[in-house]
Amino acid sequence: MTDIIEYRDVTVTAPDLTILDHISLRIAAGERVAFLGRSGAGKTTALKLINALVKPTSGSILIEGTEPHDLVALRRRIGYVMQQPALFPHRSVFDNIATVPRLLGWDEARIQERAAELMRQLELPLERFASRFPRALSGGEQQRVAIARALIGAPSILLCDEPFSALDPLIRVELQTMLINAARDTTLVFVTHDVREALRIAQRIIVFDAGRIIADATPDGLRKHEHPLVRRFIASVECGDG
Amino acid sequence: MNLLQLTGEHLLIVVVAVTIAIAAGVPLGTLAHRRRRAGGIALRVTDAVQTIPSLAMFGFLIPLPILGGIGPRPAIVALVLYSLLPIVRSTLVGLQRVDPHVREAATAMGMTDRQLLWSIELPLATPTIVAGIRIAAVTAIGVATIAAAVGGGGLGTLIFRGVAMVDTRLILSGALPAALLALVADFVLTRVERHFARRRGEG
């Protein structure tokens, strides 16, 4: 397998604060990876390094083996979903979803076809939702549109930053399954503070704490991991209050 | 001169001035949003202009070559200067109010700065910008009455003549249509503002 993302000794600092501390990490094409950690652990910063919303203070990030120079072109190949759906409020659902393909210059028939397929997978029939505006949708529906908007350009990487943490638990589980199905052909990097979610979604879980990686394991490996913080994460699930 | 012609003159001066102020003010407000220092200076200058009493402003313009003198031209220049502040400020505020998550999403999708500005930021700021244009227009309709002092014409002509002749009816014959114009402009532009707000998804 080839590495699609590589962090080479990456440090990110803010004034008086080290956010990421000499991180090195390789992610293979097609992997489903979760970045797990408490808030402030550096996982979101690590995620935003991939689509260059954050620049490393030192070290480098390689995407498909090279350091990207054309950031606009890079970002069009990487899907991004945040906790807030952040749909464009002045654009219809369809126009929101069509954003990236239009930037890429696809013809409308192809956009229509691909949008319909994605929306079917996300159980949001395009014919019923296409002309609606974001304000008329529930939080879960908005987030599904955000996922479709991120996936329509067939990105090689999908980045998710706690996309479901604002949703109620039942919808969350439903959307996790939909996301995994819709993003089958994509490398998925998923930030979460919820161990259960990490265990359900990821094939590989990377645990961040205070800007460092303290564990890098499969879900099974994580359950047996000896680091005290990881033990606490796992214990919280086993007690049933995670 | 009949009332209709004076009203027409009045309206023309205001429309020309506000149009120029929009053409200059929206780019200035956008610049103010992009470049904080340049923006700070632009705001301070337009702020300072706003504090000049209008009669004095017209007086200052009389001796100036090209922009000043007597007639509609200095009147338009003065009204442009007064209209700039609300338009620059509302453009700036409108752009600042765009949800940072929406901006981040657009950037992360690979929009260039220019695409972000034209397809996301300006459309979302439009209702706020129109609110600034409304304030500018209503103010300009009032201030334009003073333009008659420098021979700018318009409804102020009747007011100044009425003041000189101590003729209340003559004053009112200029003042009432001016007030009516302001109310109509306010009504129409409020509708425009709401239309854009609805399209933006707030209505």
SSE layout and pairings?
The complex is a heterodimer of chains A (242) and B (203).
Chain A: E1 3-14, E2 17-28, E3 32-37, H1 43-50, E4 58-63, H2 71-76, E5 78-81, H3 93-97, H4 99-104, H5 108-121, H6 126-129, H7 139-151, E6 157-161, H8 169-182, E7 187-192, H9 195-201, E8 204-209, E9 212-217, H10 219-223, H11 228-238
Parallel strand pairs in A: 3-7, 3-8, 5-6, 6-7
Antiparallel strand pairs in A: 1-2, 1-4, 8-9
Chain B: H1 3-34, H2 36-50, H3 54-61, H4 72-96, H5 100-108, H6 113-143, H7 156-164, H8 168-200
Describe this structure in words.
The complex is a heterodimer of chains A (242) and B (203). Chain A has 242 residues and is of the alpha/beta class. Chain A is 38% helix and 26% strand. Chain A contains eleven helices and nine strands. Chain A has a six-stranded mixed β-sheet with strand order 5-6-7-3-8-9, sandwiched between helices. In chain A, strands 2-1-4 form a three-stranded antiparallel β-sheet, with helices on one face. In chain A, helix 7 packs parallel to helix 8 (169-182). The longest helix of chain A has 14 residues, at 108-121. Chain A starts with a strand and ends with a helix. The model of chain A has no long low-confidence stretch (mean pLDDT 93). Chain B has eight helices and no strands. Chain B starts with a helix and ends with a helix. By secondary structure, chain B is mostly helical. Chain B has helices at residues 3-34, 36-50, 54-61, 72-96, 100-108, 113-143, 156-164, 168-200. In chain B, 80% of the residues lie in helices and 0% in strands. In chain B, helix 1 packs across helix 4 (72-96) and helix 2 (36-50) crosses helix 4 (72-96). At the A-B interface, helix 2 and helix 4 of A face helix 5 and helix 6 of B.
